[in-house]
């Protein structure tokens, strides 16, 4: 983690991801409120749409970047002992990477079989 | 005289936090809460797309009263985080960054988030 | 009027204690006057003050949970009982007197003076009225410490985060048309701590007795970094 990556760039990444997350979230909330998928087929068809797959994948990428910067900020503020800090950040990083691989699989499979 | 056991006044209950600070704590707390829910969200996404049974099971889970309560808190957190985030973005570009404007927007975010969550909850 | 005052004398007390005083409020009485009255009642009580008109920045204290300057705060505006404590997060030397050295170190770290590359002219370096206007709302800082000691980020990382006071001054020199060290200054603010511990909580703006706005100054530093990066 270079100094360059951890100050200004983290701040910029957090803002850019925030804008995408915000816009996409409004779309998602609107989608769920206005025409929630009533059946498995409808749900799967929506998920399998290439535009949805792509934008949803981008949503999760933004989410992980955003969450990482945010959690790192909280850890830098409150968690002082060096080892504990490394531990908390590692657990969180593994959680995010794991969730990322998992959701990539889900989106990929949903896109394949319709 | 330098490093010693001199007392420090730092009792957070005796410090008066302005509304903007309280809203900011909410932004932070909701962010942590939401990020802890990510694996759960991915699990539900996996389950619901795994097949018709998985989809039915997902709806069943979401119909649980406790889950609904969790969902409401999540929605509140999400809206608070979103609205507070929009406020922060504006302040980054010096819009509404004055003392009074900052207080007003902080109050608006804090009140609007739960109201919108209730409204949205009824729509579902 | 009832005052509850934070007391600590390193020679006598093992720990802090709160002591009550009764002060007769008079017309136009400022908190500083009340503290001086308490001092008359009890010689062992210490607090810093000097000019008595909000210029020297000596009597920053925490009153009923809010940081303010004693000399420009009317006691009639305060809710009773008036609880007076030292500025938060700073080691207490005695009673309301705190050790501000870390705060000064952070100020020093932003190099609060003009840096020139060009040879200095024989006379003064001229500035247009417009350029001079850029310094309004920045140069007025009296370094009382109300803002930085109200800032949670400064509470958690006073050794690494510059704090609102020093960052306002960082921008004061970045905004000065006569200064020629913009890139150096911006580079020196990089990293996760010095500037970027600021989370726009705006406690600094709430308490500044001179009505300055460190949040806007910090925003302008980030904006300048963004402009330089693109």
From TrEMBL, chain A:
It is a multi-pass membrane protein. Its cofactor is heme. Pathway: Carbohydrate metabolism; tricarboxylic acid cycle. The chain crosses the membrane at residues 12-34, 46-70, 82-104. It is found in: Cell inner membrane. The keyword DNA-binding does not apply. CDD domains: SQR_TypeC_SdhD. GO terms for biological process: cytochrome complex assembly; tricarboxylic acid cycle. Signal peptide: none annotated. GO terms for molecular function: electron transfer activity; heme binding; metal ion binding. It comes from the Bacteria. The keyword Transcription does not apply. Heme binds at residue 66. It holds the Pfam family Sdh_cyt. Keywords: Cell inner membrane, Cell membrane, Electron transport, Heme, Iron, Membrane, Metal-binding, Transmembrane, Transmembrane helix, Transport, Tricarboxylic acid cycle. The heme is bound between the two transmembrane subunits. GO terms for cellular component: plasma membrane. A ubiquinone binds at residue 78. Its main location: membrane. Membrane-anchoring subunit of succinate dehydrogenase (SDH). NCBIfam families: succ_dehyd_anc. This is Succinate dehydrogenase hydrophobic membrane anchor subunit. It comes from Candidatus Sedimenticola endophacoides. The gene is sdhD.
TrEMBL record, chain C:
It comes from Candidatus Sedimenticola endophacoides. PROSITE patterns: 2FE2S_FER_2 (PS51085), 4FE4S_FER_1 (PS00198), 4FE4S_FER_2 (PS51379). The gene is sdhB. Its EC number is 1.3.5.1. It catalyses: a quinone + succinate = fumarate + a quinol. Residues 131-161 form the 4Fe-4S ferredoxin-type domain. Binds 1 [4Fe-4S] cluster. Its cofactor is [4Fe-4S] cluster; [3Fe-4S] cluster; [2Fe-2S] cluster. This is Succinate dehydrogenase iron-sulfur subunit. Keywords: 2Fe-2S, 3Fe-4S, 4Fe-4S, Electron transport, Iron, Iron-sulfur, Metal-binding, Oxidoreductase, Transport, Tricarboxylic acid cycle. Pathway: Carbohydrate metabolism; tricarboxylic acid cycle; fumarate from succinate (bacterial route): step 1/1.
